[in-house]
Amino acid sequence: MGIFTRPSLATRWPDLAKEFDLERNAPLTADDVSARSMKRVWWTSPTCGHSWQDSPRGRTGQTPRDCQVCGGGGSGFVPREPGAEASLNPGLRGGPIVP
For the whole model, what pTM was predicted? Predict the structure, then answer.
């Protein structure tokens, strides 16, 4: 029987992991935190430098939360599975674009 492990934040969302505040979260790193964890950790916006607390799940859910000061993390992070754009827009798969 194997042990089930969840992917780390660094593995699953490498762009978002760049916003993980290493100084305030020490000794934790983005490799130590589950990508879907509810544990609140510190994030730093690369745009404005503001730090705030939120969970990885809060940053990657259906309505991801970003920096309240500048409105985003600045990395352009959008929590989508690879290929999600094609499944949402048939035109990207060569099919007709439906309005």
Answer: 0.69
